[in-house]
Design goal:
The protein has 121 residues and is mostly helical. The protein has one domain. The chain has four helices and no strands. Helix 1 runs antiparallel to helix 2, helix 1 packs parallel to helix 3 and helix 1 packs antiparallel against helix 4. The longest helix has 29 residues. The protein starts with a helix and ends in a 10-residue tail after the last helix.
């Protein structure tokens, strides 16, 4: 009986963490409507709960989301810096397409209860 309750608690913990990962993907998607602020909220969630997912299949999602955030922010910054030169718009488009790709791949893997395949970078 003790093993069952321990296993049940672990399952419930994973479900809660999975909901957090889904929330971060939602934050990343809301970035388009709310000027990037949700992207920062999402990465803060990742950093606060990162230790809780260590050693689980959800760890790959948190790492994927953190990497997505930093590269997206770098792309937005580079786009802003080079916008006056005429290439910033192309960098912005590439960054947005890449962000949508990362959200989509991550969300599908999460919904299938699978880790994100790091070969997809």
């Amino acid at each position: 009986m003790n093993d069952i309750s321990t296993e049940q608690k672990e399952t419930e913990k994973l479900q809660t963490l999975k909901k957090l990962a889904a929330t971060v993907y939602l934050c990343q998607a809301l970035t388009f409507m709310l000027a990037g602020l949700p992207l920062l909220v999402g990465v803060a969630i990742n950093f606060f709960k990162r230790n809780d997912v260590q050693g689980t299949w959800l760890e790959s999602h948190f790492n994927w989301q953190i990497q997505t955030t930093w590269i997206t922010l770098a792309g937005f910054a580079l786009s802003g810096i080079t916008f006056g030169m005429g290439i910033g718009v192309f960098i912005l488009i590439a960054t947005v397409v890449w962000l949508v790709y990362r959200i989509t791949i991550g969300w599908y893997a999460l919904n299938d209860d699978k880790p994100v395949n790091n070969q997809m970078n």
